[in-house]
Fold these 2 entries.
Entry 1:
Amino acid sequence: MISLETVTVRYGSTPAVSSLTEEIGSGEWVGLIGPNGAGKTTLLSAVAGLVTHDGAIRVDGETVSDLSPRHLARLVAYVPQQPVLPPDMTVGQYVLLGRTPHIGYFGFETTEDRRVCGVLLESLDLGAMAERRLATLSGGELQRLVLARALAQEAPVLLLDEPTSALDLGRRVEALELVDALRRERNLTVLSALHDLTLAGQFADRLVLLADGRAVAIGKPDEVLTEDVLTGHFGAHVRVLRSEGDLVVVPQRVR
Amino acid sequence: MSTTLPRNPPAPVRPRAVSEMPGTSLHPVSARRAVVVALGALVGAVVLGVSIGPADVSFSAALRVVASHVPFVHFHSGVSRIDADILWQIRLPRVVLGGMVGAMLAGGGAAFQGVFRNPLADPYLLGVAAGAGLGATVVIVAGSRLSEILPLAAFAGAVGAVTLTYLIGATVGRQATVSIVLAGVAVAALLTAIQTFLQQQHAPDLQAVYGWILGSLTVATWSDVLLILPYVAVSALVLMAHRRLLDVLRVGETEADSLGVRSSRVRLTVVAAATLGTAAAVAVSGLIGFVGIIVPHTVRLTTNASYRVVMPVSMIGGAAFLILADVAARTVLAPSEIPIGVVTAFVGAPFFLFVLRSRRVGRST
């Protein structure tokens, strides 16, 4: 579904992502992990067509750099780490923004657009809130709303940049469970940056560990989440424990 | 496409009866009411504008005079020749021009606040005022024989200043929006410096320059109306056509781009349209301040922050507001006139503070 071929992104002369090659299958959830500044956000931005890149990125067989922004937005929905949430916008208005790629330049939302958004709000348990202003929503509600807007694009690929960073522990698991459920129902391909390594290991099918813009480890969670690999690239001492089949990554204090 | 989404995917998490999202969230009843209220205010302002003045001419007389000017209709107003001339040659063009200027300043302000996501943005943000001021000053100090080209010089100065701002701002830095606003500050400072220098070098013209800067509709004629009509019409149409996209820009350029909008192109189009309209307005009225800030914000605070509401209601409300301000400007100290810019700020600021305060109190309860 997503094909990366020697993808390089430069800010000025310094490469933020260097010749990355990877194939991501349809319906797969791939987690991007790595220390701060490793290039996770940059890679997601490149797939979303927001920064120019060298090499080739193909989504569903189409080359990203050849597509119009509108066409690309019907293939790829992008949720940034800190979405802008205008406090005086209503929930209904916000989720309808997700229909933008389906509306012509001078056009307006159709009944169909409104129906799609209504169904989404209902299914994400936000149906009663369509009239509420964003300022009145809780963190968990906002997280579901942002997902609803992305889903309203009806794109087969979902890019999530640290989707849980603003949530408390319980809401984090809840949000990722929701993404997983939606992915299975709609056969979405998910590429997400995840900073919580334990959760990354539990939810992603495969992990890509980025360091200085290069993929230094790619594989199933138990292949990537090893003490050697993590300690080497995160600059911290890490222990990886096993708890009921799940991997638990624990940072260690150096004594 | 290798994978297509199911047309009606089963609702995840919690299945429920499928209902259409309440349409009211996009086109709230309050929005329609706001348009109606604004139109009512506009009608009231027009009635006051044509009825009030040193000569005692009633509104019904005004209506009859207007009817007598409808082409191909031979209607005798029965109004005396002098009264008819006062209405048709003095009051009516002044009201119409005031309405157009008010609509442009308020609509331009709303547009700039939208594309720059800055509540303090007004239509003068990118140098329209400084450019127009310089253009007007050049003409005034060059001699009164040139006074007929004053609007053209002000218009050219305004458009030139914004073009300069855009050329500088859009090409430096990665945060184009911020760079453009900063370039606007620099260009405005530079042009104002030149304008002030010229003004000081030609002390006898000080009062004329100052009077123009404070703004006035005193010498409004039908030819002024016709002069700016094309610009105002095109500008208003383009701004109205972009009201949905201005809503998309509310989530910022990056997210708007990710939704398939070329935000820099939308920004350029909206800025060009708003500049054309405000430059035309400023060219015939001088630098009337404050309308572009308080009208759109009053609309946001009292109705809805969506540009589908803010844009049309600001234009209608801005027209009503400026016509009323002009009525005050010519009646309060009659027979002498107060500069209309003084009235817009003096009346507008307390009113705006009142709206701001009552809205805050209303929200916290």
Entry 2:
Amino acid sequence: MEMEDKKERSFLSVVIWIIPLLLLSVFVLMILFTPDFQNGAYKVKSWFTGPMVSDEAIPGRVERLTIRSQRNINLIESKLEMLKPVKPYIVVNTTANRFSLRNIDGDTIRTGTCSTGKNEILIAGNKRIVFKTPTGLFAVQNKQEDRPWIKPDWAFIEDGLPIPSARSASRIEMGSLGDYAMGIGNGYMIHGTLYQRFLGLPVTHGCVRLGDKDLDVVYHTLSKGSKVFIY
Amino acid sequence: MKNKLTFWFITSVLIIIVGYSLTSIVILPVLTKNILPKASVRILEDKAKSDKKEKNNVVSESSDSSVSKSSKDEAMKLFELRRREVFLHSQLELANEDSMYLVLDLANNVAFLEMKGIQLHECHILKADISNSIKMYHTESLLNWMAEPFTVKHIDATIPKIVFIEKIAPKDTIEANKASAEPVATRLGDVFIVMDFDRNLRLVISQSEKPDDEGQKIISAMRAKYSQAEIKKSVQALIKLNREPAMPQISIVMPKTDATIFYKALPVKLKMIIKM
């Protein structure tokens, strides 16, 4: 009899201790899922309230606000329209090494592969020369056919050659920029390439290289002042 | 006897804690009004005075949130117009700046990289998950929250923004010829991006493709880091008896290439606008 009583007591004490354990686990779970709990709470609230629109009545106010809002929208839309390019423009994606030539309505005229900066730092003594295509908004500043490449100092450093004087004839190289070149500022250009097989890869020193056919279309579509978006 | 006392003591303490947590986490958000942080609306500098006046009128009148009960449809129409107006206003503000920005069109499941109002890159969002704390507020408080572009406070990602390869200049042409190698396409790492914006918004971008083993490890570690931070924040808020404002989160899934393009192209001081 006593044994049975003892057994019952120990069973009860186990059951009793389950309660705080359960409470503790509920608490831990709540902490672990707090953001979800809060989200759940908002959901519960929306069951009661539904989509909330204030309902204090002031006659005629909705109509007046609607007219004002519509007028504001028209005004902003016209301002946004004014920001749009007035000439065809080009968009260059440096991550995918692709370009997209578009007309003033934003419709794509031509897309294709290109080559952009190789993201390399050339260390020459104290100098650190960065080969990267700049990103942002640029404009075509000049256009030239069969433009010779005036090799900058880094071209000689990279080839392990001594740097010639600024006016040395050895700086002039013909044909390496392709048939056409368009300057976009700070010495960066959109031009052709002798290395067509590298199109689609990041290999340049910062310029944007296009294939011959693409370059022909781009050159004859863009004019001086055309926008160049690089991202 | 002692055992019984201990039991009741522990049970009462736990009941208080659980009761408090329930009230704080579940009941209060249900009963009380939302606490979505408001945007401080700035008027564009280049706006004409008349425009300013008009805008101010609109903002002040609309913030009264007083609409006719009898015409819920009209009110909803007004809300849609106001939502569009707020979006366009933010878009114009960003288009006037010289930086790229992100546009999340959750209504059409598209993300854009824009500059000067021009869509530079477009990507289809394969899956979008929006917190209920955003979804339920179809009202002025949501408009106030979205009234200004969101500015990023912190970005964390599993891929680097840009990788530079350092190369020491060759001494002569022989060394230069030795060093020159055929270029290869860069390998794309697995992408998981967490962006914390002002007004408590968090944007999480994940790739749709299954990550490789190494990528999975990095992504899991990052997820764990953020969930631990969440738990810590929740515990601290509970201890300090402090109800945090709503922390809305938008999680989107897009192809790995697009996620990489977005991440690499976005400026450090990124601004974002949302359409929903």
